[in-house]
Amino acid sequence: MRAGMAGVHLREVLRNPWTLFAGVALVGISLAFSGRGSAVGLVSLVAVLQLYLPPLTVVVAAPLLTRRETWAFWAALPRPAGAAYRGATVGIALGLLLPLLAGTGASAAILGLGALELLLLVATVAALVVLWTCTISFLSAATLDPTRAMALGLAAWALLALAYGPTVVGLAVAFADYPLGCFMLLAIALNPAELLRVGLLQALGVPVLVGPIGKLVVDTVPNGGFGLGIAATLLVSALLLWLSGHWFARRDR
Questions:
Q1: Hey, how many other C-beta atoms are within 10 angstroms of the C-beta on 16?
Q2: Coil, strand, or helix at residue 37?
Q3: Apex 70 CA angle, 65 and 74, nearest 5
């Protein structure tokens, strides 16, 4: 049943013309960074993707995961409601990834990326889509209302994009005389996209003191940040996916 729900929502996402346009948009963004060197182009493209992919995922996933009529029908059938909900989430993530990965391949050709750089780009795109799809799945299960789920998702994106760095840096400066190792590890785990960004720069061998939290991340994770970022993304996504199915199965729909 999980596979069936995944297939249904995969096809539904692919029927959305805006989803297909997302891959084309990725190519257009890459054209803006062509001719600047593969490393610079890759870092610039990833920086844009961290602002572009979360709201795209929010507006595509939330309406599909909050349709009360559809879920009332599925909930009446003799199978675990939580597993079906998780399957729908997986299908949406795959539906978003297919056109984006196609656009990623074209972007790699435009930017002249090597094999390692292409692998880093593909892993980053996949990690961001999985993380934010699971986040919206959790918020949708908590609200079952598309407007509230999208509002909460966009608010979470804005907080992580705008307030996360200054808040963490401010707390680190304010409590500089105290051991902050556990705090920094928790802060990084709460926003694995930042660890992915810094880990990407580490993997490319370019200066990583970029952004308000870059130095703090490097001091905490001096090497292997990208791999840790992928691991943190998978861990957080798996937790959110499990919680979303559990919450959806228990709530009164």
A1: 17
A2: coil
A3: 105
What digits encode the pLDDT tens for the residues 191-235? 888 778 888 888 887 765 555 566 666 666 667 678 888 888 999
Q: What is the pTM of this model?
A: 0.86
Q: How far apart are CA 32 and CA 75, in angstroms?
A: 47
Model pLDDT for residues 21-58, shown as the tens digit of each residue: 888 888 888 898 887 778 888 888 888 898 889 999 99
118 to 68, 75, 115, 123, 231: CA distances (angstroms): 40, 42, 5, 9, 19
Residue with tokens 């709530």, as numbered in its chain: 251
What pLDDT shows up at residue 74?
Answer: 59
CB 60 within 8 A of CB 92: yes
Burial of 182-193, coded b for 16+ CB within 10 Å and e otherwise, reads eebeebbeebbb
87-126, pLDDT tens digit by residue?
Answer: 889 999 999 999 999 999 999 999 888 888 899 999 999 9
Residue 252: left if φ>0, alpha if ψ -120 to 50, beta else—which one? beta
